[in-house]
From TrEMBL:
Protein name in UniProt: Large ribosomal subunit protein bL9
Keyword Nucleotide-binding carried by entry: no
Cited function: Binds to the 23S rRNA.
Keyword Oxidoreductase included in the entry's annotation: no
Gene encoding the protein: rplI
Native organism: Holdemanella hominis
Gene3D superfamilies for this protein: Ribosomal protein L9, C-terminal domain (3.10.430.100), Ribosomal protein L9, N-terminal domain (3.40.5.10)
Amino acid sequence: MKVILLKDIRKLGKKDDVVEVSDGYARNFLFKNKSAIAYTKGSAKVLDKQMEERAEHEAELKKEAEALSETLKGITLEFTLSTGKNGATFGSVSSKQIVEALSKKGIRVDKRKLQLEQSIASLGVTRVPVDLYRGQVIGEIVVHVSEKA
């Protein structure tokens, strides 16, 4: 029996896949748990329409991410840190601080999208990559850390 999966099922397939399963497995497990529906001409048309809508939505999200990437190119975030006699810094600039500074400029970015392995603890300019769309669109934030006066 052909079915359309409504959820990801391990060792069977991902959501929206059309797979062939035994009748008993479909009736007793997949349909009962609302994990799949029977494959018919009508359900295939609905699936195709949903896939088209999802593709359009994904294209729109990617376009927005590319526009945000262009916006980020022109922005430099300024931070200050206290330093000691030998030039060692006290404290660091975290991803949370970077996201807060961006939000003050009207730009919303999830802090988990910043590809910052550890907080910035050195003076100077650091370029922080940001995953704006599933690894396909990577933006860059310029962070300038200077010495506190």
